[in-house]
Design goal:
The protein is of the alpha/beta class. 40% of the residues lie in helices and 15% in strands. It is built from eleven helices and twelve strands. The strands form three sheets. A six-stranded parallel sheet has the order 1-12-9-8-7-4. Strands 5-6-11-10 form a four-stranded antiparallel sheet. It has a two-stranded parallel sheet with strand order 2-3. It is globular, with a radius of gyration of 24 Å.
């Protein structure tokens, strides 16, 4: 075979092999861009704080309207004033919260009737929330976050972290409930579910009518089945959260998905959290994410910076992108330090970290 025939022959063989490889290989489809956004829920929503947020490229927030007096809902005018304030810059109000149903302990809660099952007081408070849903719809605020908590956020102290940071800590083995019972008395699972269902039966139909997403925070942290301070924390397990979203089938009934709190429910969050995100995310039940990390597991953990916990945040954000999560990823429960008033430095670190993760996962579709 002469040289020209050899080159021609081998070139044809190579081309044929390449064609066969191309046919056998899966076609590359460019991924969709990431839809999630850096978010924030810190107060106050005023000009100074908004400039601070904009400095760190936070463009979507859960806003805190200024409510006059002791009214349990924001008026349309109060919501518009907040929207107008952020309208001067580049920030959008994607969510807000009522001035009750917070993550506070029931013995300190100013309006406890819903969680204490006290009628007619709880009906009055539910009516206030119904009014706030209607007002948010008129003001163009698409989501409300809330808690259904009796015990609030329970911790046992703080642990030294990197530098001079201190990490909020929970060790069930070192916990000593004081007092043994709250003013709620003993609240077993059936009682707690009755209170939740009573609330949802009256709130979610209004949310449906006005198309406002209602995002409920899990119980932080989960407790043993026998309860803590006499209370069974039914939203402190993944199964409990699954039951919660099934009570009313609605596109406006879902979770303020605190990834840190959900991680605290798991025996091995570093391997288990991703499938939990998939479960709720694929069902469009995640309306907001508290994107924070822990080191540890159920019954014993530290709340740490996002880059040093047991959950791989690179993998986590890939899962949020996989399920098409379109809303906010916000820092929460950041470490504290003596020279960091109000945690502003820690929050700034988290904003930048989340922003970089979003940009990184978004670049995969380029």
């Amino acid at each position: 075979m002469n040289r020209r025939k050899f080159i021609t022959s081998t070139g044809a063989v190579g081309l044929l092999a390449a064609n066969r490889l191309a046919e056998a290989s899966p076609k590359v489809v460019l991924a969709k861009p990431a839809l999630m956004k850096v978010g924030d829920q810190t107060a106050p929503t005023n000009e100074t704080h908004l400039k601070y947020l904009a400095r760190y490229s936070v463009r979507n927030i859960c806003g805190s309207p200024k409510i006059e007096g002791d009214r349990m809902y924001a008026t349309v005018g109060e919501l518009y004033r907040m929207v107008d304030l952020v309208g001067k810059g580049v920030i959008s109000i994607d969510c807000t919260a009522p001035p009750f149903l917070e993550s506070s302990h029931i013995d300190k809660e100013k309006r406890p009737a819903i969680m204490l099952a006290q009628s007619p007081e709880r009906d009055r408070d539910i009516e206030s929330l119904q009014t706030m849903i209607k007002n948010c719809a008129q003001a163009g605020i698409p989501s409300i976050k809330y808690n259904m908590s009796i015990l609030g956020v329970v911790r046992t102290g703080r642990t030294p972290g990197r530098g001079d940071a201190m990490y909020s800590t929970w060790k069930l083995s070192e916990a000593h409930p004081d007092p043994p019972l709250t003013r709620a008395g003993r609240v077993d699972a059936d009682m707690f579910w009755e209170r939740i269902t009573y609330f949802l039966d009256r709130v979610i139909p209004v949310a449906n009518e006005y198309k406002i997403r209602m995002a409920c925070h899990p119980h932080d942290p989960g407790m043993p089945p026998e309860g803590y301070q006499g209370v069974n924390r039914v939203l402190g397990t993944v199964d409990g959260l699954k039951k919660f979203i099934s009570i009313h089938e609605s596109p406006y009934h879902g979770l303020n998905f605190c990834q840190g709190t959900v991680s605290e429910m798991l025996t091995d969050p570093g391997t288990q959290i991703y499938d939990v995100i998939r479960y709720f995310g694929s069902r469009n039940k995640i309306f907001n994410v508290h994107f924070r990390n822990i080191r540890g597991h159920r019954n014993e953990f530290l709340e740490v910076y996002p880059d040093e916990g047991d959950v791989n945040f690179v993998k986590a954000i890939q899962v949020y992108k996989e399920v098409g999560y379109p809303y906010m990823l916000m820092p929460d429960h950041v470490p504290v330090a003596p020279n960091d008033p109000n945690g502003l430095q820690s929050f700034a670190f988290c904003y930048g970290y989340i922003r970089a993760l979003i940009q990184s996962v978004d670049s995969m579709c380029a």
